[in-house]
Amino acid sequence: MGLTVSLSDMSASDWHRLRPRVPSEYAFMSGVWYEAWSSHHLPSGSWRGPVVRAVVRDEKQNVVGVFPYAIQTKGPLKFMSLGGPYGPLRSVPLARERREEACTALVRFLTVQRDGVALRLGPVENTDPAVRALLAEFRSQEWHLCQTRNSLEFTLNLPETFAEYEARVGPELTKKSAYKERRMGRQGQVQVRLHTQLSSDEWERVMDDVNRDFWKSFLSDTTASSDTKVWLLYFNGQAVSHCFGIDSGQHRYIITNAYMQSVTSFSTGVILLRHVFEDAIEKRIRVVNYGEGDSGYKTRWGFVPQRRIQEWLAFRPGLTGVALSAGLKLADLLLALRRRAAKRTPRFTDRQADQQSESDTA
């Protein structure tokens, strides 16, 4: 009989059995992850609710994968977009031992499930085995693929000890972090607290300090509560800086690292990152993922662009898919040409503009 796909819900036990069969670095994307996203972010902007699940089941009706999606609109067009919070990234939860079979079944199902003109996958990692298998199956079944994004993602491979880490990146940053914390302490009371594995009431109090409703829902799950790490830096009893992280297997994702403007001079982000790395090494975390952007700051901490964050549009086989894919590629080409032309256009300085104006009126 093989694998079957249907639009259906998944029970908590379904997710519980699927989790250990998904690559550990993506296992945090569980049922409560998508439920919290759906509750607090659908509908919003271009997204329409509710979240829909294309569930893949084996011969015994056990779940071996799921493609969670929601509808996104752009003008008159509708897209079936891979669901979940934007950060740190998105993936397709698939049991590793049935991955290729599940992708074959999913693409066949999505070919006839016409909720939108195309599928949108992103942001996803170029190293994600589920995404790579799904893209290969789209090509095999003659879908038309367009890559719309390909940006650098920064990760840090941690050594066994913090001393080894300092030897790799140099001691200046960690010394600066410790100095900033001491300097801040001379002007008030400083505390850095790590919050994890809390009760719902305790998480409520922590989240009130940073006002994040999504996390309050997500952290109602005991596994999510254990995986989530929140560092809060308190200055004279007030939370003035925070760092959110999620541990998944031997990976730690840094979601946000933020501070109040009133403590900008203390570089509280630098203070918190030292605590985050020390804790990661102690917990035997092997990879810290800091996402995209601000390459100069991240490379100083030892992060390198080992992976890429990508977005893809997948159009169904047939003339309509060909036309839409070609139209998108043409639009991207025209945009690139306009940007190139803008860069080549000479730009006058104020003085040159004055000289040109004088010449025109002469």
Describe the fold and architecture.
The protein has 362 residues and is of the alpha+beta class. The protein contains 13 helices and 12 strands. Strands 1-2-3-4-5-12-6-11-10-9-8-7 form a 12-stranded mixed β-sheet, sandwiched between helices. Helix 3 packs across helix 4 (129-140).
CATH superfamily membership of the largest domain: Gcn5-related N-acetyltransferase (GNAT)
Whole-Å distance between the termini? 86 Å
Please outline the major beta sheet: 12 strands, mixed
Q: Identify the quaternary structure here.
A: single chain
Low-confidence spans: 346-362
Number of domains: 2
- The CATH architecture of the largest domain would be 3-Layer(aba) Sandwich
Mean pLDDT: 88
Overall body shape = globular
**Do you know the CATH topology of the largest domain?**
Aminopeptidase
Query: How would you spell out the order of helices and strands?
Result: EHHEEEHEHEHHEHHHEEEHEHEHH
